[in-house]
Design goal:
12 helices, 314 residues, alpha+beta
């Protein structure tokens, strides 16, 4: 029920033109003991996000709250005592600032990032990259260089953290979905709970029942887009976004042969958060299902607005 309610809220926002938020944490990417802290403090300022903060903590300590480096950097956030004295905060409000306590050290890492971002806010280029460079080489060098300085260690640090950031981030849409995509989702939602029928097109004589490609075809016909009837033909009805580029309304496809689009045997409508609405099989009803399964083949964007949102290299 929480999933259903959540997706209904998302669909309502899509229809009203409300887009997504920043990068959330991928499920299981951060140790459970620290997940709430990272999620909360990773939203402290616009220059950071939870996935970026997680990437820094992982790079600095590997989530070890007791580690000490050869330079005497301490704890999960690897603060040097002098830096801690100037920038450590009482994150849990217990009256002390403990460099070894993740409840203080993680908030302090986020707070320090945001302080550095303020120092370099007027420097040309990407603010987050400049902030990370300041973390590694100092704000003065970033300001003097007019961006990430030509220091191999610093450049590698920025590149490494940004790459790790993606591995800690849950997939999110890159742009708002079109109103046609939102309309197709709304159509499919109204059919939740309807019993599957092989070859079903939703006609009155079929009791309004669908198979997988019958549901996707009818959903898009409701918003003025005509699709082919069967799933492997629908795959060729538009450009193919990558998994990381999926938007609600994209068609998602499944196959037992991941090298052959003609072997596609199933299709659903992506609704966000790693889920689709689909008509699964005989004996099942139209429902929400996860898309991240071993037989996931790929996706197709069938709306004009959506196609324009894809990279030109696709």
């Amino acid at each position: 029920m929480l999933l259903v309610v959540g997706v209904y809220v998302v669909a309502g926002n899509l229809v009203n033109g409300v887009g997504g938020a920043g990068k959330a944490l991928a499920k299981g990417s951060v140790p459970a003991a620290y997940q709430t802290l990272v999620q909360k403090w990773g939203n402290l300022c616009p220059a950071i996000n939870p996935a970026l903060l997680a990437a820094q903590l992982y790079q600095e300590s590997g989530w070890d709250p007791d580690v000490v480096s050869h330079a005497d950097a301490r704890g999960i956030a690897q603060f040097i005592p002098g830096t801690w004295a100037a920038h450590g905060i009482d994150g849990d409000g217990d009256g002390d600032r403990d460099i070894w306590d993740p409840n203080d050290a993680i908030p302090s890492a986020a707070s320090y990032d945001c302080e550095l971002a303020k120092y370099v806010k007027d420097v040309p280029g990407d603010t987050t990259n400049n902030m990370l460079a300041a973390y590694n080489a100092g704000a003065y060098r970033v300001i003097k260089s007019g961006g990430v300085p030509a220091i191999t260690e610093t450049q590698n640090y920025v590149e490494r953290i940004r790459a790790l950031e993606e591995s800690f981030a849950a997939p999110v849409g890159r742009v708002d979905p079109s109103r046609q995509a939102a309309g197709a989702i709304a159509f499919a939602q109204k059919k939740l709970g309807t019993l599957y029928l092989w070859g079903g097109n939703g006609t009155a004589d079929q009791g309004g029942r669908f198979d997988c490609s019958g549901l996707t075809k009818a959903a898009y016909e409701s918003v003025g887009i005509t699709l082919p009837r069967v799933a492997n033909d629908q795959y060729n009805a538009g450009p193919h976004p990558k998994r990381s580029e999926l938007l609600p309304g994209d068609l998602v496809f499944f196959s037992d042969d991941l090298t052959n689009s003609r072997a596609i045997r199933h299709v659903g409508i992506y609704v966000g958060g790693g889920y689709m609405i689909d008509a699964p099989r005989t004996g099942a009803v139209i429902r929400f299902d996860p898309i991240d399964t071993p037989d996931y083949f790929g996706a197709t964007r069938v709306t004009e607005d959506g196609a324009k949102a894809l990279p030109t290299t696709v």
